[in-house]
């Protein structure tokens, strides 16, 4: 799982930087300020959780038998897709109902962090 999460974290870090640059340079002046802020929130959480995936890769390498660590990595990835993805789609399309998906991604992020905490407590 080390390799998978390291690759996923690296790809998502790359995407977060690229999408952030696109938002800052390509969307400035083209989106209303409120939608640009929504887009930037997606980028911010995308990067945080790309880093979390790299961190999870390191933990998966150290605790290779921990299904909690592995599941946390998948939760982070699902969170990126649902949380950041829905914010990107909402801001670019203006379809506000897409915001209903965002909290599901947020819950996935929370699950990922809780699973890491439980894995840490079990390893003590």
From TrEMBL:
The chain crosses the membrane at residues 42-60, 72-91, 97-121. It is a multi-pass membrane protein. Keywords: Membrane, Transmembrane, Transmembrane helix. It is found in: Membrane. Its main location: membrane. It comes from the Bacteria. It holds the Pfam family DUF423. Belongs to the UPF0382 family. This is Uncharacterized membrane protein YgdD (TMEM256/DUF423 family).
């Amino acid at each position: 799982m080390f390799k998978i999460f390291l690759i996923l974290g690296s790809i998502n870090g790359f995407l977060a930087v690229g999408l952030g640059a696109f938002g800052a340079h390509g969307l400035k002046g083209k989106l209303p300020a409120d939608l640009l802020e929504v887009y930037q929130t997606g980028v911010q959480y995308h990067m945080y959780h790309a880093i979390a995936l790299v961190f999870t890769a390191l933990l998966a390498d150290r605790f290779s038998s921990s299904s909690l660590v592995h599941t946390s990595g998948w939760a982070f990835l699902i969170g990126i897709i649902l949380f950041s993805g829905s914010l990107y789609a909402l801001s670019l399309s203006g379809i506000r109902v897409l915001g209903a998906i965002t909290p599901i991604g947020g819950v996935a992020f929370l699950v990922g962090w809780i699973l890491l905490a439980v894995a840490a407590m079990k390893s003590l």
